[in-house]
Amino acid sequence: MSKLQYDMAVIGGGSGGSAAALAAARLGLKVVVIERGGMLGGTATQSGVNCWEVGVGGTGIPFDIYRRLKREHPEAIGIYSFGRFFCWQDAWYYPHALDKVNFPGAELLIDPERCYVDTLRRHSGPEQARTETWCREHWHGVPFLPEPMAATIRTLLEETGNVDIRLQTGFSKVWADHQRVTGVRLDDGNELEASQWVDGTGGEFCHALGCETLRGVDPRSRFHETGAPEIGSDVVNAVTLIYKVMPGFEPAIEPLPDGIPVTCWWAANFPPMHCVQYPDLGRNCNMLPTMEGRECIKLDYRTATLECMRRIKAHWHFVQTHWPEFQRYRMTWIAPTLGIREGRRVVCEKMLTENDILLGLSRQTDADIISIADHALDRHGEGGRCPEVDEPYGVPYRCLIPKGWRNLLVAGRAAGFSSIAASSCRLTRTMMQLGQAAGTAAAIATKHWLDLPEVPADDLRASLRAQHVQLDWPLPPDLLEHLNETEKI
User: Fold this and answer.
1) How many Cβ atoms sit within 10 Å of the Cβ of residue 425?
2) Could you tell me whether strands 51-52 and 239-240 are parallel, antiparallel, or unpaired per DSSP bridges?
């Protein structure tokens, strides 16, 4: 077997890892991407979470990917607007008076009148009521088909001429010395060496190296967050198994396989679903939640997947039975992997908390902000509130640096977040922005012979702005012009 050498190694080719690789390769580094799955994109492709939700900060690499997909595969990507939503009727009717609810959750429909800039704001600000009218006007996202998305990410990486992509490959052993990663043995027996390393595995790579990690709900004493409980727990964000349905069939209710009950056996009632229309008129059906995160962790992965499979079959039967419009649809695809939104979180030089988010960009004093976001503090099916934020907040570069490490960064949901902050910051485009910052920092460090914690914040932010990354609110006029003009090309 061989000893492979690169400037930067990315372990995990999900949203954050792929963006890190692309940013570094565009800046001249020789990069390898190691991905255990069969395609790039992670949860956004392999788990069926095929929609970029509304939110600030989705410029830079996410926009590059959108533009390429729209140009070369216009049938594979679009912009949604809200259709029906049971919460805007009377949520109390669901699921107790189904005849009074005209949709089993939230309906999001392709809207050809909208453009990419329309997807770049979620917060309403303290001065505006978050009414149905306001949300319909401002909340738009980006649904896409998974295979074209994964293929486009791969194409962009290959076009740099600087990236070696190794799919269906994991790591079996890691080496480190004085908090520097020195090498990795891959499943295929090859050994890998690099100057800079990026963890895009959801924290598993950092955990294998011995980095301190967190999991579950943090107690209030850990980060002094008013929204945290006095006592922590092992509760993690809920898990979904997403399925797709296609129209064009004669009306019928698909029969349930043997052994699957008609009624909901794991909860008091069938959960509502997030139902997103694809450009091909199929629907991405996301039952929230399919399984509580804590339950998934206690089961082995195969058992959890099989149980989720049973649940979505029962859910689809329920939907077809009570909403006859769906009887002209058939289930045509089930995501190959579970949508796991939360795992380990790495203890980093800076831990983003609820307090940072509530301060907002206008009052944060961090000089090294490398991404902004404005998603709600959403624990996804774990009960409690889902409070919106009044303004965007920033994620500092130090949130990507595992505490004490010199040549290692985290790109993705395992970065330095409290559990509350992670519930807001975990969306795909934000993870891509963290990855773009990680790859850019690695390029600066390599060029100037620096350790990653020594990368100057001003240089990093200047390089990101040159790559059209949004670091300010509102959108600067030059960035707004770039987005609007480039989308027309």
Assistant:
1) 23
2) unpaired
Region 405-418: mean pLDDT is 97
C-alpha–C-alpha distance, residues 332 and 34, integer Å: 30
Alpha-carbon radius of gyration of the chain: 22
Neighbours of 355 (CB within 10 A): 16
- 8 pLDDT tier (thresholds 50, 70, 90): very high
Average per-residue pLDDT for the chain: 95
Contacts of 41 (CB under 8 A, 6+ apart): 13, 14, 15, 18, 146, 149, 150, 153
Which two structure tokens, joined as six digits, stand for 201?
A: 């595995």
Question: How far does CA 368 lie from the centroid of its chain?
Answer: 22
**C-alpha distances in angstroms, 315 versus 267, 281, 290, 323?**
12, 20, 9, 12
Tokens of 175: 């080496």
pLDDT at 385: 64
Three-class SS string for 29-48?
CCEEEECCCCCCECHHHHCC
The answer to whether the peptide bond before residue 95 is cis (omega within 30 degrees of 0) is yes
Q: What gap in Å lies between CA 271 and CA 290, rounded to an integer?
A: 8
Residue 470: CB atoms within 10 A of its CB come to: 24
| Angle at 199 (CA atoms; ends 196, 202), nearest 5 degrees | 175
Query: Cα–Cα distance between 293 and 133 in angstroms, integer?
Result: 33
Q: How far is CA 12 from the centre of its chain?
A: 14
State which H helix or E strand residue 88 sits in. Answer: helix 87-90
DSSP SS3 for 454 = helix
Q: Which two tokens stand for residue 19?
A: 């963006």
- Predicted local confidence at residue 94, as pLDDT: 82
Burial of 436 (0-12, 13-18, 19+ CB in 10 A): buried
CB 29 within 8 A of CB 254: no
Confidence (pLDDT) at 125 = 85
Confidence of residue 170 (pLDDT cuts 50, 70, 90): very high
Nearest to 23 by CA among 370, 456, 440: 440
Q: Strands 283-287 and 273-277: what pairing?
A: antiparallel
Contact 39, 227 (CB under 8 A): no
Q: Which of 80, 56, 59, 65 is nearest to 22 (CA)?
A: 65
**Cα(452)–Cα(438) distance, integer angstroms:** 9
| Structural domains of the chain ordered from first start | 3-52+146-232+343-487 (3.50.50.60), 239-340 (no CATH)
- Going by pLDDT thresholds of 50, 70 and 90, the confidence category of residue 44 is very high
Report CA dihedral (340, 344, 348, 351) to the nearest 10 degrees.
Answer: 70
Residues 412-468: tens digit of each pLDDT: 999 999 999 999 999 999 999 999 999 999 999 999 999 999 999 999 999 999 999
